Amino acid sequence: MRKLLATPWCWYLLALVVIVIDIVTKVWAVDRFMYGPALQIIPGFLQFTYAENYGAAFSFLADAGGWQRWFFGAVAVIFSAVVIVWIKRLPLAKRWEPTALALILGGALGNLWDRMLLGYVRDFISVYHGSWHFPVFNVADMAISVGAAMLLIELLFFKDNSEEPGKNGAEV
């Protein structure tokens, strides 16, 4: 296990776990909620339901006529390739950044799977209060959001020691 953690493969494995959990939960949601009632988890706040998103985040461009499927698919493929290379080039000692990137990669590929296979993304988690409803989302969306928040936290609060004067032979 220690040897696996010393390679980028552990981060790719984390991305794969996100993809598998995302697909399994989407299959479950389709089976349970596509033709049935929503399941109240926390009444008045959280429920499982079923929705199809033909656009991107928050149904952006959902009514664009079909071209957005291929556009968002291409963006996801290019972005995923960049993240795969980014993870590979990170120092092996890093943990926070590659974890964040692996979550984003797994989420992007989980939604890409739906988009290419079905032409839309399956969503099933609904958060609401009264008449206010947050857009329905899925496990891939949560992974992307958590990963992006982790990258933002790193950017704002953690300084890369390799940029300090005198570190790694860098003098100012």
TrEMBL record:
Compartments, as annotated in UniProt: Cell membrane
Record's keyword terms, sorted: Aspartyl protease, Cell membrane, Hydrolase, Membrane, Protease, Transmembrane, Transmembrane helix
Record bears the keyword Transmembrane: yes
Molecular function terms, GO-annotated: aspartic-type endopeptidase activity
Endpoints of the signal sequence: none
Membrane topology: Multi-pass membrane protein
List of catalytic residues: D123, D141
UniProt pathway: Protein modification; lipoprotein biosynthesis (signal peptide cleavage)
Keyword Membrane found: yes
Cited function: This protein specifically catalyzes the removal of signal peptides from prolipoproteins.
Name of the featured protein: Lipoprotein signal peptidase
Organism expressing this protein natively: Microbulbifer salipaludis
Gene name tied to this protein: lspA
